[in-house]
Amino acid sequence: MTHRSLLCFGMGFSGRVLATRLLAEGWTVHGTSRSAEGCAALAALGVTPWQFDGSTPLPSQAFDGVTHVLSSVPPGSPRSLDDDSDPVLTVHRDDLLACGAAWIGYLSTTGVYGDHQGGWVDEQTPVAPNLSRAARRDRAERDWQALTPAAHIFRLAGIYGPGRNALDQVRRGGARCIIKENQWFGRIHVEDIATVVQASIARPRPGAIYNVCDDQPTPPEEPLRHAAALLGMDPPPDVPFDQAELSPMARSFYADSRRVRNNLIKQELGVQLRYPTYREGLQALLSQG
Fold first, then answer.
1. Is the pLDDT of residue 26 over 80?
2. Does residue 21 have a pLDDT over 50?
3. What does CATH list as the number for 5-161+188-215+259-275?
4. How far apart are CA 36 and CA 31, in angstroms?
5. Where are the domains of the chain?
6. How far, in Å, CA of 199 to CA of 122, rounded?
7. Which of 79, 82, 166, 195 gives 20 to 30 Å between its CA and that of 263?
8. Is-contact 52 58, C-beta < 8 A?
9. Does this model's pTM top 0.85?
């Protein structure tokens, strides 16, 4: 079997699911975390850990034998950097070029499309970010594409999965259904992210951009109401958006409204989503406890 080795920068919620799958298939997996505790957690999974804070380079041996690279590190982090550039590219541009990886992936966001007032977008829709963090992601996408033809861009919708989902929000109490007319959100189960990335690795198309979302964008209150019904609890109260006391970060998520098509991952990569809507995803999470 051909040796396959992944180096994942920022191995967090999504990366760990992918790592577990690849390790089971005989891959060597390296991953970075900003903390010693995070590195210990990666080691417990069977991942070779490297501590990376976005400013201090990894040792050269971290790139030895690497055939595939994935980054989920957001641009502009850590906060100590003076600019909004991608820290992985800033620190390791030459190493990434020298390692000759056959496939490189970058996890971005559907936020780069900006506000379409509830309209549909796909990979052919011009990007028009209107939030600063989305604009940084747009710049990072272009920087990764300029680095190498091997780059693949994955624009992720809102991620949910074990420990991060509407069931947990309702169980904790204090959840609210923020009602804003013509507001649409997209989402994707963390397992389906791994499925899409694996499919791209199996069928690489240099320069590809993929929307990674499920089949059913919805107003944000729908999954909360469904989660409450699954739990046999009263639905969270409705609160009009203009009356909701939200942090600036939480409020910013309501600045854009769009519905994102995922046809390309099905047509080109042959992906069949395990959780095509939030209903299947939440039911599975409830069954898994």
1. yes
2. yes
3. 3.40.50.720
4. 12
5. 5-161+188-215+259-275
6. 19
7. 166
8. yes
9. yes
